Amino acid sequence: ARPQELLLDVDKVRKQFGGLVAVNDVSFQIFAGEIIGLIGPNGAGKSTTFNLISGVLPLSSGAVRFRGHAVSNKPSREIARLGMSRTFQHVKMIPDMSVLENVALGAYVRSSKGVVQGMLGLGKAEEKQLFAEAERQLQRVGMGTQMFELAGNLALGPQRLMEIARALCTDPALLLLDEPAAGLRHKEKQALGDVIRQLKREGMSVLLVEHDMEFVMGLTDRIVVMEFGTKLVEGTPALIQSSPIVRAAYLGT
Ligand code: ADP
Ligand code: MG
């Protein structure tokens, strides 16, 4: 087999908030085409790890390398340009705007200097291109028929898919999803799982933080377990499921 391309190298990453060590020298790697799960109890440091990888927070120490570039402490937008994209734990949207407008606006803010007013000065051709891309990504996540609904009227499942469509507009090689299945109904989880599996087939890598064990087990190639800011163990879903350390720490059995 041909050696896998190393996409993301998280190297002894550390984050302190005052006296609290939220992420304690955590290391793991992601290779091209993998779906990796990041699990652990509330407060384990999962979202903080995401924020360190995606440039939302500065590291206290350690390094993050993406496609061979040192991206530690680089601005989010620069990291996005290299091919990393993310969603947040809480859906970010303008409820009174259509789904399509939300995705187009989000794509614009991510790909440009971030000045929203700049969108008003866009040429007709650029605007058309932006909306065409937004439409293409909405189709890709199965939201083609809901493009013109108000974002605020969507159920949580479609809102999460809208967020993924927005993240896809920058054409990422690695997609970071923070608790995408939280609060979703069974059918919505299935739709989300189908979208993630399709992205993998298209060659994308996905790192997802998740609480729902069943969802993670059925979807991921490898799982990293965190507790109290440290990496407890890492392995295939089968290994994680049968690990006594994980059962004791996380599943409480
Ligand atoms: P998880 O996503 O696994 O639930 P977080 O990464 O959100 O955990 O939080 C890890 C720890 O860091 C928690 O104890 C949390 O209270 C703390 N924490 C997170 N963000 C901040 C912050 N901006 N300032 C201070 N403490 C924080
Ligand atoms: Mg979190």
Automatic annotation (TrEMBL):
- Where in the cell? Cell membrane
- The residue ranges of the ABC transporter domain are 8-253
N-terminal signal peptide: none
Organism from which the protein derives: Roseateles koreensis
From what superkingdom does this record's organism come? Bacteria
Its name, as the record gives it, is Branched-chain amino acid ABC transporter ATP-binding protein/permease
The stretch of the full-length protein covered here is 338 to 590 of 592
